[in-house]
Amino acid sequence: MGNLLKVLKVLTRDIENYPHFFLDFENAQATEGERDVWNQVNAVLQDSESILFGLQAYKGAGQEIRDAIQNPNDHRLQERAWHSVCPLVIRLKKFYCFSIRLEEALKSLLESLTCPPYTPTQHLEKEQALAKQFAEILHFTLRFDELKMRIPAIQNDFSYYRRTISRNRINTMNLDNESEVNNEMANRMSLFYAEATPMLKTLSNATTNFVTENKTLPLENTTDCLSTMASVCKVMLETPEYSSRFSSEDTLLFCMRVMVGVIILYDHVHPNGAFNKSSKIDMKGCIKVLKDQPADTVEGLLNALKFTTKHLNDESTPKNIRTMLQ
Fold it and tell me: What is the sign of the dihedral through the CA atoms of 255, 260, 266 and 269?
């Protein structure tokens, strides 16, 4: 009888830890109280698709760069490579500047979704339009990083641009583009693109800074917001009653990306991470939800959990969790 009561107590605690409610990612509309923040964030999000389109269309200047390197004395080839790379670098600057805007948008949403007197669950239930925008930021972030990892030309083009400037070999070439991306900007962009997942790194840093800067706000307000979002996504994905309410199959993948995104943020912000037994995120359940999907659909998301989290390889991570992600 004692063991049964113990099990029931654990189950009750788990139910409390994993909220069950439907977050309407498809149709949530801003209320009057959400309007100001929603408008501010929407001004950023409305540019997200053009950013992704620009990244998808990125072809690189590999051939022009190779020709210039192989023929260092051919001024015509040097100039052709330079004029090919400069517009691409301006495009990379646009992506980088968007990451700064996205960082500010995320901070605004965190301020709204973590402030007293409401609990994170109450915030997410009452302010679904802001929760949807938070989800859209995470969805964009994982899509951007998945695309970026498949385009090695980005690093090659930018490296060539920086080498060309530093060696002062542009001579009579068009200098206008250098003024667009000066050395200071180039240094910041270089750090950004050196990351395997630059947008996710930006959001992780932004969330960590938000916690550090808001010393009067309990850490739990932020981590509970993230864990609640992860739990709600997991429940919606694994519960037919909820998932059947999505009008588009794309919303399922959207929900999966959001779940993985908030897990990664939680893992970076919480001192013990997302994989610890004390975590408020049911990591085993979340990974199972992903593994129940077609492998080609979730490979990038499982890799994100493997390679962009902070605490997966901690000794405190249960072996069965590590095994599931191998």
Answer: negative
